[in-house]
Every structure is written in C-alpha cells, then in structure tokens.
Amino acid sequence: MACPEITFTEVDPAFYGRLLHQAVAAGAFFNGLSVKYEGVELNWAYDEPSQTLHVTCSKKPFYASCELVESHVRMLVEKAKTGGL
After folding, report:
1. Cα distance between residue 59 and residue 9, in whole Å
2. Are 28 and 35 in contact (CB under 8 A)?
3. Which residues of 59-78 are buried (b: 16+ CB within 10 A; e: fewer)?
4. pLDDT tens digit string along 5-14?
5. Distance CA 71, CA 54 (A)
6. Whole-structure pTM value
7. 3-state secondary structure of 3
8. Which residue intervals of the chain are DSSP H helices?
9. Angle, in degrees to the nearest 10, between helices 66-81 and 13-25
C-alpha cells in the first residue's frame, strides 16, 4: 500500500539540482521517475514549469512507517534547501 503523496512547492531548477545531488550522495538510485533507497521505493515527479516536486512512497519495509519515510524525505529536502551538500 502506497503512502500519501508529499508535495514540495517553490522547487526551482537550482534547488532541484542540489536535491538530486544530495539524494544520490546519500545512496539513492534513480531510474526515471522511480527512486530506490535501502528497501524504499519512491515515485518522484518534478514539474519544472510549476516548480513542484511530488514524492510518493510506493514500497517500504514493513518496519518503516509512512511517517518515517516522509520524515527522511523532508530532512533531505531541508538539507538541500539550506545548501548542505
């Protein structure tokens, strides 16, 4: 069962680039709109014209709650927002 979608607005291309760099540096593997990281699979869709990122967890280990996955995604976004690499 998928988790609720997480939506981020005001994601300009420079910020999105930092976010991708941060995710890959953390060990995420991107394949089109699918992202895999430590047993978690995310649907990851960036709409550049509206500067919106939609992230939905489609698969996770049984011991990881949707809230835990969302928390990690939000931490990654916040780190990229502040320019942390």
Report:
1. 24
2. yes
3. ebeeeeeeeebbebbeebbe
4. 999 999 999 9
5. 15
6. 0.88
7. coil
8. 13-25, 66-81
9. 120
